Amino acid sequence: MQEHPIRWFVTAPQACPYLDDREMQSLLVDPAVNLGGARYGQLLAEGFRRSGQFVYRHHCPTCTACVPVRIPVADFAPSRSQRRCLKRNHDLAVTITRPPDQPGHAPCADLDEHMPLFSRYLAHRHTGGGMERMGRDDYAGMLSHRNGPVDILEFRRDHALVAVALTDRTPQGLSAMYSFFDPETPDRGLGTLAVLTQIAHARRLRLPHVYLGYWIDQAPKMAYKTRFRPIEGRVSGVWKRLTSRP
């Protein structure tokens, strides 16, 4: 089957949300194009990312601070603190579900069950940024796209939902798209658990990578990504192992 050509768009410069003194631009794939899972996976391998219906890559003329990063699944080994995180959360049950509009054999996720946890997380983590106003339709839009399946990892304690991880599945690997969790249980390390569980999920599926989006050395909120070792960054168009900085 012949692939449709991709139309590209470049966004206008806007204030960078990561570094105060810089502007950001993005290269967008035309959202009307149905990429399919394989071509979407190829774009992930070229440093692209998905947010809702948009597949994009940062395209800043004078800045290269944003580094796409991924975990090589076969080589990953949890650190001592990550093993402690797994042990702390041994009482949680994990279920893999799918979005309501996605066909498949996995059980269908109950978005109404997700919303109270999602709203509490946004109110705690994204106050003043606009995301805290996201409703059920906005959340459903995060899950729905035409470029391949979305796996929803649900974490429960005694049947109560405590965390959710949303991950895109492609032949090239999983792309950790978003996760949210009970903000009143910081000692559990549920964000770390979400990444560790996606690595384990990729290993079961025999997928080579888990993509974690962008990492910026100067952004403390992104430091957690380099705690998963080994980790690779795409620098000057080439994937290579990172130490503390590319």
Number of helices: 5
Strand content: 25-35%
Distance between the termini: 39 Å
- CATH fold name of the domain at 72-212, please? Aminopeptidase
CATH class of the domain at 72-212: Alpha Beta
Class from secondary-structure proportions: alpha+beta
Got a strand count?
A: 14
Question: In short, what is this structure?
Answer:
With 246 residues, this protein is an alpha+beta fold. It has five helices and 14 strands.
Could you outline the blueprint of secondary structure elements for this entry?
Blueprint: E1 8-10, E2 14-15, E3 23-24, E4 26-29, H1 37-45, E5 49-51, E6 54-58, E7 67-72, H2 80-88, E8 93-97, H3 111-125, H4 136-143, E9 150-157, E10 160-170, E11 173-181, H5 190-204, E12 209-215, E13 232-235, E14 238-241
Parallel strand pairs: 11-12
Antiparallel strand pairs: 1-4, 2-3, 4-6, 5-6, 7-12, 7-13, 8-9, 9-10, 10-11, 13-14
Write structural notes for this entry.
- The chain is an alpha+beta fold and 246 residues long.
- The protein has a domain at 72-212: Gcn5-related N-acetyltransferase (GNAT) (Aminopeptidase), CATH 3.40.630.
- 23% of the residues lie in helices and 30% in strands.
- It is built from five helices and 14 strands.
- The strands form three sheets. It has an eight-stranded mixed sheet.
- The longest helix has 15 residues, at 111-125.
Features:
246 residues, alpha+beta, Aminopeptidase, 8-stranded mixed sheet, 4-stranded antiparallel sheet, 14 strands
